[in-house]
Amino acid sequence: MKRFIVFILFITTVVLSCTTNTNNTDKGKELSKIYCGSCHMVPSPDLLDKHSWETYMLPRMGVFLGIVEHDSLIDVLLEDGPGREIVKQSGIFPEKPMLSNEEWESIKTYYITNAPENPIAAQPKTITKGLKNFDVIIPEYKLSPPSVTLVKFNTDNTIYIGDANTQSLNVLSNNLELIQAAKVKESAVWAEEFQDELLLTVMGSFSPTDINNGFILSLPKVANKQPYKLIDSLQRPVHSSYADLDGDNNMDIVTCEFAKWTGKLSWWRNNGNGNFTKKILRNKPGALKAYIKDLNGDNKQDIIALFGQGDEGIYIYYNEGNGKFREEAAVRFPPSYGSSFFKLYDFNGDGHDDIIYTAGDNADFKPILKNYHGVYVYINDGKNNFKQAFFYHLNGAYAAIPADYDKDGDIDIAAISFFPDYKNQPEESFVYLENNGKNNFNASTMQDPTLGRWIVMDVADYDKDGDEDIILGSLAFEVIPANGLVDKWVNAGIPFVVLKNKIK
Predict the structure, then answer these.
(1) What predicted TM-score, i.e. pTM, was given to this entire model?
(2) Which residue ranges in the chain fall short of pLDDT 50?
(3) End-to-end alpha-carbon separation of the chain, Å?
C-alpha cells in the first residue's frame, strides 16, 4: 500500500510538472509575441539549437528587455569610448526590466524547450568543381593580408579595389595592373561615378561600432580641385544612393548607416549651396543597401532598402511629395537570418522588378550552419507584393547577382559565401548556378574556391566582348575551427580574382 501511494505521488508530480511546463511554454509563446515582436519579427524556436538559444541569444535578448543576467554581458555588447556613450544615450538597452522575472523565465522556457538539440540540417547538395564558361584570372597585384571591402568594374575599363588594411582605394587597369592608389581611411565600401567626381562611401571602421566617423568623400576628376567630404559624421555607412528625391533638380543622397546598435536609413536634402539636411527615414541599425526608383509609377522617386541587425527586412519608402515618405514592409525576416544583400532585378521578364536576396551573415557569435541561409528570389505581382519563388541553400551567403551569363535566354545566378561550410563543403565559397530552363539550376565552382574568402562581388562586361564577367574580393578573416586557410590567404595575398566569361 505504501508503495502504491508513493507511485501515485510520483505520477501526480510528473503530471503537475508536465502541466506546469506546458503552461510555461504556452505562456512564453504568447509573451514572445508581445515582447520579442515589439522589436522584430518573432523568431520560432527551431531557427537555432538549444545551446545557441541558452548560451548566446536569450541572454542578449534579455538585455534589450532590461534584464541583465550577467554583468559581463554589457561589456560584451558595448564598445569602450564614445560609441558606448552614444548607445547609452539612445536608450535601446532599458535601465529597468520591461517584464517580470517570471515572464522572462516563461519566454526562456518556451525557446529552450522547443528548440532542437542540434541545428536543423539542410538537404545535401552537389557543387561541381570547374567552371566551363569562365577563366579564373589571378592578378599579380597582391595585398597581404587581403582586406577587400569594395570591388567595382568601371565604365572606363578600370577596376576599383577598396582595402581596409591599407585604408586605400586602388585603381587597376583592365589588365589588372595598378594605376594609382589613394589613402581614404578605413574601408571604402561603395563608389559612384559622376562626370566630374567619384563619390566614395567610407565606413570609418570595418569593425562593428556606433562611432560616427564614416563619410562620403568627393574625389574630383577635374584639375586643381582637392578631395573633400561631401557628408561627414556617419555611423559606419555601407552604401549610398543618389537621385533628385524632391523635384528641385538637385541631387539628393540616401545613406545606409549600419553602425552596430544605433544606425539608420536617411535621405539628405540638397539645399543647393553645397550643404545637405538630414532626414531620417528609419531610426534603426543594420541598413545595408538602398535603391532609388519609381516603384509605383507616380513619377516620384521611391526608396527600397534592406536591413539586417535585428529587425531584418526589405522596406519600401513611397515618395508622397514635399519631402515626405511612407514606409511599407515588402518582406520581413527573423533576426537570425543574417540578411547580407539584395538586388532589384526583373527575374521573370514581366516588366516588374523582383528581389534577389541573400541571408548568410554569421558573425554575431560562434558560426553555426543554418538550413535557411542561402539565395532567395521573390517575385513581384506588379503591385510590389513579393512572394518567394526560389531558394538555394548556401551556408553564409553574402551576395548573389543574376544575369544571363551563358547567353541562352534564361537567368543564371553567381553567388558568394563568407561563411561557407569549410569543413564539409568549401565549394560553397563561390557558386555559379546555371539555369537549364524553368529555374532548374546546376551548381559549379572554381577548381580552388578557397583562393580567397569572398566578401564582395561585382558583375559587368569589363572586357567589352558582349558577355558578363565577375570579380570577387577577398578579406582574410578567422575560420572557426582554424584550418590553415587564413595563413594561406595571408601568404598568397590574393585580393581578388576575375572570372572572365568565355561565351563570346
Answers:
(1) 0.93
(2) 1-21
(3) 90
